[in-house]
Design brief:
The protein contains 19 helices and two strands. By secondary structure, it is mainly alpha-helical. Helix 2 runs antiparallel to helix 17.
């Protein structure tokens, strides 16, 4: 019997699930290679080579992050209702590859910066919700395996990002930013080739409706829509005011859609929707802190952190400012298998910690991370030790795994299957809004050109890190008060499912 003869339910066989999972994992790994490689050098590229101010670069990165995560709402719809998740994933990867290639030429033609970033935003919107939905299909009906799979998925894709975040800043320093961005394009191209060669392994988990051929006219309409979306994204990236209005409109529109969905939903679906909404919002707050990695933390590393890792008088190795972002991926890879093991063990003993409790612990770790950076910056007379970055990123990364690292699992566990693509897209939309807010907060430590030229110093970032530490501590308190409510809603959801 061939793989294509299995129904989606047949994908429950462990061997078939593992093979299908590796296909999605491979293209996601290379997509992360490209995206995080680009991210590691983009802020520094704008500030150091395009001579943008800190404030302008932070706001553009905020708008870019918002668009990159808001557009998945459209991508989820296209994957669910128009082209299917698999085709939409491939289209997104192709646009991302083109975006990285355009960035490689942006140093000579600055106008290409907006076009390239707009293409990346559109491509990511098509790719992200549908790649996550493919994982959900593979592990449908097994919540314990789904939690573990998403955690391992989250860890494994960080392999690609870790390699690229070490490689691209080095390429930028030694061979220039164009070589760094071109490497991102080539990497994702490799992932696309592997996906096309092994895509038949996904047949068992692909619904019959998605296997039907799509009329060329539909592809043409989608293509025209994507061109318009990319032009609009470029326009938004070039205007701070328009970006802010779009973020506000996106948030208001999502709230209205959520209300409408809840009102129209059958009674049996409402407990799950309530949990999806609340836990999704709770996890989203993390992106305010996450956005600091590519804005304030990168500039802090550039101006206030020594790149030399020392033990006593011995220098072990050196990291550039852009390379410090790799610490996030390294910690994710270390911590993810530990958490996956603990999740499986707790599931076998029927002692699983709730998603709400995990998020509470996660924000406590975020508060500790920014507390470490605050203390280091406030009490530094010169450059901060890079070991401080290792400790801070370790706490922040554990917080990530316990908050947004479970965001996709929350949608998969609690949202109705018929809305899976839309809810995945909605989750990314909320993440985009939070990233824009994070960039606005990062501008609390944006240096004027005269200070930036002189290097600034660690002390100038202490106030920002204190604010972020206090905000994270406040979130912990709020989540502690909300936990009884989420526990009651979870019990209602379980009782409905049991019927």
């Amino acid at each position: 019997m061939t793989a294509s003869s299995f129904s989606p339910a047949g994908a429950s066989a462990p061997g078939l699930r593992r093979k299908a999972f590796t296909v999605v994992l491979a293209i996601e790994l290379w997509e992360r290679f490209g995206y995080y490689g680009m991210q590691a050098v983009l802020t520094l590229f704008m500030v150091e080579q395009l001579r943008m101010t800190d404030a302008a670069a932070n706001l553009m990165m905020g708008a870019f992050g918002a668009l990159t995560y808001i557009t998945p709402l459209i991508g989820g719809f296209i994957g669910d209702r128009v082209l299917g998740a698999r085709r939409t994933t491939v289209m997104g990867a192709l646009l991302l590859t083109c975006g990285y290639a355009f960035l490689a030429a942006a140093l000579q033609f600055h106008t290409l910066l907006l076009v390239a970033m707009a293409l990346i935003s559109t491509g990511n919107g098509l790719f992200k919700p549908n790649a996550g939905n493919l994982v959900r299909r593979i592990y449908k009906g097994d919540d314990a395996a789904l939690d573990a799979a998403f955690t391992l998925y989250y860890m494994s894709v960080n392999v690609g990002s870790a390699v690229s975040m070490m490689l691209t800043p080095w390429l930028q320093i030694h061979y220039g930013a164009p070589m760094a961005f071109a490497t991102c394009a080539v990497g994702l191209g490799i992932g696309l080739v592997y996906y096309m060669l092994r895509s038949n392994w996904l047949e068992a988990s692909t619904p019959a409706t998605e296997k039907q051929p799509v009329p060329l006219s539909r592809f043409g309409l989608v293509g025209a829509g994507l061109v318009l979306l990319t032009v609009f994204n470029a326009w938004v990236l070039g205007s701070d005011t328009l970006a802010r209005l779009c973020v506000i409109a996106a948030g208001a529109g999502l709230a209205a859609l959520w209300v409408a969905l809840y009102v129209k939903a059958p009674q049996a679906e409402r407990p799950g929707l309530r949990l999806t909404y609340l836990l999704g919002l709770q996890g989203t707050i993390y992106l305010v802190f996450y956005q600091q990695m590519m804005t304030s933390l990168t500039l802090f590393a550039l101006r206030g952190v020594s790149g030399d890792y020392r033990i006593g008088e011995i220098t072990l190795f050196h990291m550039s400012a852009g390379q410090f972002q790799v610490l996030n991926s390294v910690w994710i890879m270390i911590l993810s298998p530990v958490l996956a093991f603990l999740y499986k063990r707790a599931g076998g003993q029927q002692k699983q910690m709730s998603h709400a409790r995990k998020m509470l612990v996660g924000y406590a770790m975020v508060a500790i991370a920014f507390g470490v950076w605050w203390m280091a910056a406030a009490h530094s007379d010169g450059l901060v030790s890079p070991w401080v970055m290792v400790v801070g990123y370790g706490c922040l990364s554990l917080g990530e795994l316990l908050t947004i690292g479970l965001g996709l699992a929350v949608v998969a566990c609690y949202s109705p299957a018929r809305l899976s693509g839309f809810m995945m897209g909605a989750l990314y939309l909320m993440w985009g809004i939070a990233m824009y807010v994070g960039s606005l907060i990062a501008n609390q430590a944006a240096l004027p050109p005269e200070l930036a030229a002189g290097g600034g110093g660690a002390i100038l970032y202490a106030g920002l890190f204190r604010t972020l530490c206090e905000v994270a501590a406040g979130v912990v308190i709020i989540l502690a008060f909300l936990e009884p409510l989420t526990r009651r809603w979870d019990q209602e959801h379980v009782s409905v499912i049991a019927k």
